[in-house]
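Ticket #4471: structure export looks truncated?
Reporter: QA, pipeline team
Priority: medium

Steps to reproduce: submit the single chain below to the structure queue and open the exported record.
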Amino acid sequence: MTPEHVTFKGEAGTIAGDRWEGTGRGTVILLHGGAQTRHSWSRSGPRFAEAGWTTYALDARGHGESQWDPAGDYGMDALVGDLVGIVDQVDESPVLIGASMGGMTSLVAEGEHAPLARALVLVDIATRAEPAGVARILDFMRSAPDGFDSLEAVADAISAYNPHRPRPTNLDGLRKNVRQGDDGRWRWHWDPAFLRVGDEPRREAREARLDAAARAIAIPTMLVRGKASDVVSPEGAEHLQALIPHALVREAKAGHMVAGDDNDVFVTQVVDFLDTHLP
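Actual output as written to the record:
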């Protein structure tokens, strides 16, 4: 199923996306994690459309084909502002499905701007993230400031970060996540200024905001946690459920990249959840 390329107006410029047509169930918006692109949902999008949901996978500002913010603003307020504006442009209350950064954005957007969505699915993200897992992600993002000399080197870096996942034999797919500069080197497909987000408010302040947003969530909510995740622990999932008592918690045989590691189980869990709570 080939998606339609679409664009939305974001607060800092154009937001790029893919759209798969559904059969009338409603709308799903897929939001990727930090330093990823909409192509991380390339297998999930068609599956949700087959289940009836018109599905959008978006590049966050500064990622993929979305425009970079001239001011380098990639903080939570900016991401939430983009999402609220996109929901208004879709002109329909959607299901928000967000991984990592996309999940935090969805949680805060719904918690602070309700009613916004029909349901919320958090993909291996909660209001409490494990510092060691977050540090490992940031180390990976900072590991090649001058880029890579080949796609093979890109594949090596990804395999080192995700050793449980088979190394890709066809490297053409990597071109969606990296861009080649005039110097011939390959760099991740996001604005390096994004890394400055870590210098923003203190961790405690971020967690307090996430907790407050979670307490305000009234719509059907599910957390899909990777059993092997080093970002969301069982205790982190329990903390989220204490904040959102009606939230369901499900697990997949995956690490932090749930949809990439176990897409079939992930989509099945989400579709079952939506069928049950949004008949």
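Status: closed, not a bug. The export was complete when the record was re-opened. Leaving a note from the reviewer for reference: Residues 76-90 form the longest helix (15 residues).
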